[in-house]
Amino acid sequence: MDPNKLIHRDPGEEADGVASRLAKGAVRDIVETILRWRHADIRLIFGSIVVVLLVGARIAAAFIDVDQLQTYLEVERTSGFSVGAGFQTTNCRAVDGLLLGNDRNGYALSATLLEATQAFFFPALMSCAIALFFGTLLGAVAGYFRGGMLESGTKLLLTVIAAYPRLILVIVAVGFFVAYLHDPGRAVGMRLLLMAAMLGIAYVPVLALAIYQKVGAFQREQFVEAARAHGLSDTRILGYHILWANCMPVLARHFFYLFGYFILVETSLSYLGPEYGVPGSIPSWGNLLAGCSKGELMSAAVIGPSVAIVTSILGLTFLGDAIGERFERGRT
Amino acid sequence: MKTAWLVGQKVGHFVAVLFLSSLVLAGLLWFSPGSPGKARDPVVWDKAAVGDRVCVDARSCGVLETMPTTESGEDVPDDGFTFVKKYVRVDLGDGSVQQIESGEALIPGPSFPRWFLGTFWGGVLSWDIGPAYNGEPVLSVVMLGARQTMPIVFGALVAAVLVTLILVSFLTWLPFPSMRGLLRTLLLILSISPVFVLGFLMTKAGVLPHPVNWWVAPGACIIILFIGDSSLGELLLQLENEYRHLRSRDYIHAAGLRGASLFKHMLPALLMPLGSMSAAKVAFLLGSVVIAENIYAVPGLGMLSLKAATKPDPLLLLTLTVFITFVVALVSLIRDVLEIFIDPRIRKTTAEGV
Amino acid sequence: MSTDATPAYAPAEGAILTARDVWVGVQVGKIIKPIVQGGRITVPRGGILGLVGESGSGKTQFVRHLMGLSSLEPGVFGGSAIYSIGDGPPVDVLENVTQFAPYRPPQGEELFPQRERIGWAWPLWRRRHRKRLALLRSLGVGFIFQNPVGALNPFLRVGTQLMEAVRVAHPKATRQEAEEGAIHWLAQVHLKPDKHTLSLYPHELSGGMAQRVMIALALAGEPKFIVADEPTTGLDSHIRLEIVGLLNRIMGQGNLSGIVISHDLPMVARLCDRLTVMYRGRVVEEGPIAALGDPESDSHPYTRELKERAEALAKGRHARTKGGVEKTGGTGVVVGTGCIYRSRCAIYEAGLVDKERCERDQPPMQDIAEDHRVACHAEDVAGALNAAQAGGDHG
After folding, report:
1. Is A219 part of a structural domain of the chain?
2. What is the value of ipTM here, to two decimals?
């Protein structure tokens, strides 16, 4: 951030709304981001591909109506191949006519893999939103207004939240709050919401610490004193100059980390069973894996969800790493 | 003595965090649908009297105005054969008086301070918290679970640290940077798999020996725990980073020039980051152990917390979570205290002149 | 081994360290930024060499790479550095580097070092290089670092580290003997020679004390070759005088050879026998220390500029170059064809030299006196310089 830009600013310019200022800054940032992609490293490329695939899968999932896709009953009718009695099967064999075979409920695995992104996509976004909002708020406040009750109080609050293992908090909330709800349909929505909220809150200390360190480092810079001397309010200094201009890479990095972590948590809980995650009638990658407990190792039903899970989390983590390294180094 | 003061500070911090975190969780449980503050148990009319506090439903409570009588107001004794509907009147205190069936009257649940400070913390200090959902004392249930889980968690921690140290030494010894990068990436990909995926694949691939001995399930838990959920990957990256920074420090160069043992010089400097990483890792492992135990059906704290969350049993859940937080905070405390003893800069901050 | 050394690189007569054509670079993004370009030094046996230059001239990195004390990537990738310590044959620590290094120095019109090969075997060469250096260290090499507190292990007491150093010279010493040796060296550097000092931690020492401890550490190994890297930078002036006096006493003792790296000219003049001047990664002058004394004497234009500045500073006047181009060039390395000094050179400005040559070719090291070389294209360097300054003198 060039301090000269602060010194030469006209008093009249201050009349511009914060929103328009932010917008102009955002456009500049986006253009710079695109320009930097020329020197992308492989993690960035891989991560971006994974993100594009995830978003595409989610969009596709909105259009898939599983009932209308080939079920194994239909396959049985068309190909004459009998997959055995019972609608639910745990051996998940590959069936002719279906791209990846079928899952436990008899639906096409390829379709259910896509549809499973519904289970985590928007809850993950919500979780990230909560974590980013509260984490930034607490971290920025603690880092900017150093010394005094505000900083110590915030740090204590963050320490208390950080004292629990994250997964335990999520399980506590999810299990306990939903135990009394008897409507399974309503329960799923509530459960995912709670999962997202608790994970977001549990992640707040991590993000707050990162922001706290960054804001603290910038707060010591002289341009803050110069800005104050020129009459800029603390909110503006903190909000625009420090956070938006300089802490965006940190936020972006943690956004992707948390997204990947949410996928991990949601699939783990769904794997554990219908009481904790998404019940069996609604597809989730964890669910699919749990359902094929008797299948062979090399079958699509086992490889498919495993690869999906590992690739998503890997891609998001790599993307977070790459963004962090590239932009944090370039800025400081 | 400065050291005593520093250690005392850390211990005080530990106690404060423990208490506050239990308070927050208790508050969370109190306001949930399964709150222990709700009235649940029906009134035992033999022991009740007019003027007692009774509840008409889970939340609203008032003062008992009348003992059970029939609708017409008669007090018909219970002969054990015929069921006579009796009613009572309860003054809810906000000006309304409600009449309910005597069978629906409930004993009020405990107030929050009574439950939190009295039942729970009082129970902790007197080593008797109360019964769990299966009737056994909460503390013995928790201790039984801990006997299973703590070896798994600390075994996974030790395995993670040892394996990481070996891997870092190996990677440093490896002369080709590209090979190093490839190996590191492969390890990262392996490590980033969630614990349950690793467990599932391991079981499918038939890695576990048969017949199942007493150590197979915990051993399998340890293996998937120390590798999965990025446990190994993160530790590896952080330790490599620390090592690389340390290696370029002037005093390590100087020690190398003197032909001194680099190990002796680097060890204290590495112990501290390693300690921090271990403390963070214990917290992480205690979370992941829930899933690992579920896969291999180990009756430890993980399975217990899942049961407590879904039964629901708030007292057991609170005890479990506080116990886990206690372990995490204790490890942090040990790490802080060790740092006080290892790093001389913390103890002695006054510079002495010639 | 000397039999394997390429004929172009042979140890100089009576020199304990002969380094020629040394290239040191660091990878920044996709290019190699050269820190030392064709560096050369000759340290006479029993004599002290002063290595002077501005900050950013690469002098510290140069010497650190010759001794294996740096962790830059790729580091040193060209040249030779032949040590003749001890009674054994001379050892070239950079033997065969050009056959293994992935980069080579730029030739002709090239500006930056070029990638020559993939360099699969480069890490193996590095390993061998470090083994050779380790051999040397056992024969006695000491290094006094620039930042004293950074060079002492903050977790170990001063005594522990000193005793370690004493055991370099006396590997079989018992604990008692090592302690006595440590106390002896404390006395040598004018610190309180008692157990209390030994029990101190580095962060409890003041700057001057820490510097003395570092000198003691370097000396305790009883080295035959010692390097002092900016020993007085960052110290208060009165401590500086004491440290210089201490170094003078130590280095004045007959058999010690060494290098003093500094941009403090008076100190170098007092401590050293020979002089090497570096500018922006290249060596521009090699000569006797007397070349520093008289501003009018023969020397490279840059050296003269340094001398004049030092003199003006000492006399308290605002430094001004007589007729030279007043350009405070940036720090750090410059790449380019031709002489890097030409932007500041009075001779070049005055046109007393073939300007095209200055822009095109690297100036060769030409002898202007007995064992005194400067890198310049002008035929009579001293004369041209005097003429240029006389002509451009603004009084």
Report:
1. yes
2. 0.84
